[in-house]
Design goal:
The protein is α+β, with helices and mostly antiparallel strands. The chain has one domain: Winged helix-like DNA-binding domain superfamily/Winged helix DNA-binding domain (Arc Repressor Mutant, subunit A), CATH 1.10.10. It has 4 helices and 3 strands, in the order H-E-H-H-E-E-H. The protein has a 3-stranded antiparallel β-sheet. The longest helix has 18 residues. The radius of gyration is 16 Å and the shape is elongated. The chain starts with 19 loop residues before the first helix and ends with a helix.
Amino acid sequence: MSAPDRSHPRFRLENELAHPVRFSIVAALAAVESLVFGELRDELQVSDSVLSKQITELENAGFVKVSKGFVGKRPRTTLSLTKEGVSRWRAHLETLQAIAGTP
């Protein structure tokens, strides 16, 4: 049996974005400069623990930048895509369009 042909576009998809919550996080962050953790959690309708775990995965993969600070005495976590994350997100979308046969 021969080695699989790696020319199909699916081989260019980002494995980190195969999880629907991670895909949704990156999609939401791609549309804005940054989002506060709680706003993203509410938008995606997930728990704090689910969002936190998936953000950690994306941060380790180089997609997301996490900034922690305070507003008054309250902690605030702000999320944004890295430059690499933006580039990889765009390439992922282009690959999905290639698979679907859309321009």
